[in-house]
């Protein structure tokens, strides 16, 4: 019964270039499915999934954003007030790793310092086509205060682990102030519903 009293909502956003597999990661996590030819997300898609970690239940409110450049201007609407962000790149495509770094810099500049950030090198099942080494990505993640995992939505490798690791880190982030300079709420405490500054993304 105690665990039921510790339900926490956490807004999570996925960012990254088109074709990196963001939607596939979410689909694998939420529904345990993989679609070989996934249509590109238009704008953003919303999903929800709960995880139990220790004596807490985390309800992730997941925003899967579009990777196309023409939707870039919409991204702040989704990552603003996020408790966590997963920045995804394709280990077979160095350009997507470069793009991931730009997303991270943007989050660091405009996002909240309490946002938990994960760097996910997706398509880890395509090792023979690898163009970005895990060592390079790990070093970059450490330098920038992120945690790093290589994932494969196709084989489900480490997909759930990324979300579990974020869930484990949330209580630490929650111990810090829950609002940014604009008064945007990062998370909800217990069952007390609080609104974010953008009604579309609360």
TrEMBL record:
InterPro entries: P-loop_NTPase, Small_GTP-bd, Small_GTPase. The gene is RABF2B. It holds the Pfam family Ras. GO terms for cellular component: cytoplasm; endomembrane system. Belongs to the small GTPase superfamily. Rab family. It is a lipid-anchor. The keyword GTP-binding applies. It is found in: Endomembrane system. SMART domains: RAB, RAN, RAS, RHO. It comes from the Eukaryota. The keyword Iron does not apply. GO terms for molecular function: GTP binding; GTPase activity. SUPFAM superfamilies: P-loop containing nucleoside triphosphate hydrolases. Keywords: GTP-binding, Lipoprotein, Membrane, Nucleotide-binding, Prenylation, Protein transport, Transport. This is Ras-related protein RABF2b. GO terms for biological process: protein transport.
């Amino acid at each position: 019964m105690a665990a039921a009293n510790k339900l926490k909502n956490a807004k999570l956003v996925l960012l990254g270039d088109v074709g990196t597999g963001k939607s596939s990661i979410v689909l694998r996590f939420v529904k345990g499915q993989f679609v070989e030819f996934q249509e590109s997300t238009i704008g953003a898609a919303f999903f929800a999934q709960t995880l139990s970690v220790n004596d807490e239940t985390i309800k992730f409110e997941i925003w899967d954003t579009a990777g196309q450049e023409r939707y870039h201007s919409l991204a702040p609407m989704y990552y603003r007030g996020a408790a966590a962000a997963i920045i995804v790149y394709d280990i077979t495509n160095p350009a997507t790793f470069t793009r991931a770094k730009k997303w991270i810099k943007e989050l660091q500049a405009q996002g909240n310092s309490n946002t938990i950030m994960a760097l996910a090198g997706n398509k880890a099942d395509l090792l023979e086509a690898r163009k970005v080494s895990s060592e390079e990505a790990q070093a970059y993640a450490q330098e920038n205060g992120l945690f790093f995992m290589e994932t494969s939505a196709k084989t489900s490798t480490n997909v759930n682990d990324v979300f579990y690791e974020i869930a484990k880190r949330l209580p630490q982030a929650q111990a810090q102030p829950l609002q940014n300079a604009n008064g945007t709420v990062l998370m909800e405490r217990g069952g007390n519903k609080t609104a974010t500054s953008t009604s579309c993304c609360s």
